[in-house]
Design brief:
elongated; single chain; two-stranded antiparallel sheet; 9 strands; alpha/beta
Length: about 550
């Protein structure tokens, strides 16, 4: 990866008004570089989230053309400022937490633009991040605007044209005949929390007879009430008292539009790097929760934040509520949404941790396993990525995405034999993707280079048969291209010349099961390994006893 070429490409994308592509490319770059450049990830993630939010507002016609143009121009300035900081080797400033109740008269994109201009003019970058929030801090409350109230009998709630998310509450049905007006509590708390975290929307209660046939018993019936009113989320439920006089509240909710919860789909791009496509699947999210109202409100808040592209709020909120509900393993559906928010804010390690927790109780979850493997590959953890992708292929041998990804990982690790197998399998499946072709080209280049290493080592051995360095290179290169017989012979010769050679022992361990005379190889290892020093023994795999 040539940093100068990559940053030049990103600057070109910005000049072509391709802000989203530029920000995503820059995030990918920042995930692979050390500090201080890496410190700019949160800044770029926030600029990307702001850009997506503006585009969503444009689609919903909740922002004027001039406002959108100004916001996008200032986001562009923010991206250019970030690039300048990265190129000059200046670390991103630490995020500034804002107290709840603070006030800012300007929207975030306006502040970004002003600060970006200062940065570009004076290289004083330490103000830029102040307009953003860290993962656990609420947004400036002045940025959230939520209409709330109650609709007239039989009428749809008066959702405003500028509302980014419309929530409909129905009166909670008192099973014991004692109305608790829970919907008023839920509506008020939800509206307050949305304002606190900078979310814009509308929260209205629709009047309905809770004992009539119109009152919904199922999620589908609830959707049929909310859909004509253009509500995107409907909340209803039941209340009753137990024998001791304690209130039991069951809250139900349903996200109405089928397009909700479209998750980030990771895949290998044309350049054999991990890229994203935001249409992995749709999760028709609905739930029935019998627990304290506050936890329910926080869960709904996190889901709404995800749907309005406020992914830092979503990730932080879902993190807490999922933990309180027993962790990701107990809530895998919401865990996928939480991981998605982490990915979209450039927090790949935290997304990996979510997938890891999910897989502890459901090791067969192909979606989580594949996403985890791809994130590991993107982060340079090729061994872990290879293990995860192999487990996916054990469940789904013809999964072309996993085959493509493992081929790319194997080329990166120089495991060319496995890469060739996966590429051949892709050809059989008639996969003609540009990514597979790029990986095949990389494979051919690596294979040729390893073959040349073997040939050069042979020439050196002819001159000096005791050249241990040449024997080591020949053994490792032959193993890399899948010539296990040659690798075994070279490693055996190396071990004879140097009985404590770790490289020889590791090569023999790797090829033992892949050569016809595996018993002879085992005998060599049984003699060689006990002679190693304690420090050397820590660096080789224990020899597994043969099965009887």
């Amino acid at each position: 990866m040539d940093p100068n070429a990559t940053l030049a490409d990103i600057r070109q994308l910005i000049s072509e008004a391709k802000n989203e592509a530029a920000a995503e490319r820059l995030l990918d770059y920042l995930n692979q570089v050390p500090e201080p450049a890496r410190s700019w990830r949160d800044t770029v993630s926030n600029l990307l989230a702001q850009y997506k939010r503006i585009k969503l507002q444009q689609q919903r016609n909740t922002i004027s053309f001039d406002e959108a143009r100004r916001a996008i121009n200032q986001i562009t300035d923010g991206l250019l400022a970030s690039l300048a900081g990265i190129e000059q080797g200046i670390p991103a400033p630490a995020p500034k937490s804002k107290e709840v109740g603070g006030n800012t008269s300007s929207p975030p994109w306006l502040v970004i633009g002003v600060v970006a201009a200062l940065v570009l003019a004076t290289a004083s970058f330490f103000m830029l991040r102040g307009v953003f929030q860290n993962n656990n801090s609420p947004a400036d409350p002045s940025l959230g605007v939520v209409d709330q109230g109650e609709s007239e009998e039989g009428e749809c709630p008066p959702y405003g044209a500028d509302s980014e998310f419309n929530i409909m509450l129905l009166p909670f049905q008192p099973l014991d005949g004692k109305s608790k007006k829970v919907e008023l509590v839920v509506g008020s708390r939800l509206a307050t929390e949305m304002v606190k975290y900078g979310l814009n929307g509308s929260v209205y209660t629709k009047k309905i007879d809770v004992f009539s046939n119109e009152y919904p018993l199922t999620s589908q019936q609830a959707s049929s009430i909310g859909l004509p009113c253009k509500a995107q989320l409907i909340i209803w439920g039941t209340t009753e008292e137990d024998r001791d006089g304690n209130d039991i509240v069951t809250t139900k909710f349903r996200f109405i539009e089928s397009s909700h919860f479209s998750l980030t789909d990771l895949e290998i791009s044309n350049e054999a790097t991990v890229d994203t496509v935001s249409s992995l699947s749709s999760i028709a999210s609905s739930a029935e929760l019998t627990e304290e109202i506050e936890m329910t409100i926080q869960l709904i808040l996190g889901l709404v934040a995800h749907e309005t592209d406020n992914h830092q709020v979503a990730a932080a909120t879902l993190d807490k509520v999922i933990e309180d509900r027993g962790g990701v393993a107990a809530n895998p559906k919401w865990g996928l949404i939480q991981a998605d928010s982490y990915i979209k804010t450039g927090q790949d390690e935290r997304a990996i941790e979510v997938y890891r927790e999910m897989l502890k109780t459901d090791s067969t979850n192909v979606q989580a396993r594949l996403q985890k493997g791809l994130l590991e590959y993107r982060g340079g953890k090729t061994e872990a990525a290879s293990q995860d992708l192999t487990m996916v292929l054990e469940q789904e041998p013809e999964n072309t995405k996993a085959l493509t990804a493992r081929a790319a990982v194997s080329v990166k690790r120089n495991d060319l034999n496995l890469a060739r197998q996966d590429l051949d399998q892709l050809e059989k499946s008639k996969d003609r993707s540009v990514a597979a072709q790029e990986i095949r080209k990389n494979y051919n280049d690596r294979h040729l280079a390893e073959q040349k290493k073997v040939e050069t080592a042979d020439q050196q051995i002819q001159v000096n048969p005791n050249d241990t360095s040449a024997w080591r290179v020949k053994a490792e290169a032959a193993q890399n291209i899948g010539d296990f017989s040659t690798a075994k012979k070279a490693a055996s010769n190396l071990l004879q010349l140097d009985p404590n050679n770790l490289a020889a022992i590791k090569t023999l361990q790797s090829v033992m099961a892949k050569v016809p005379d595996s018993i002879d190889v085992r005998r060599q290892l049984e003699i060689a390994i006990p002679k190693l020093s304690p420090d050397q023994l820590k660096r080789v795999r224990p020899l597994i006893p043969p099965r009887n």
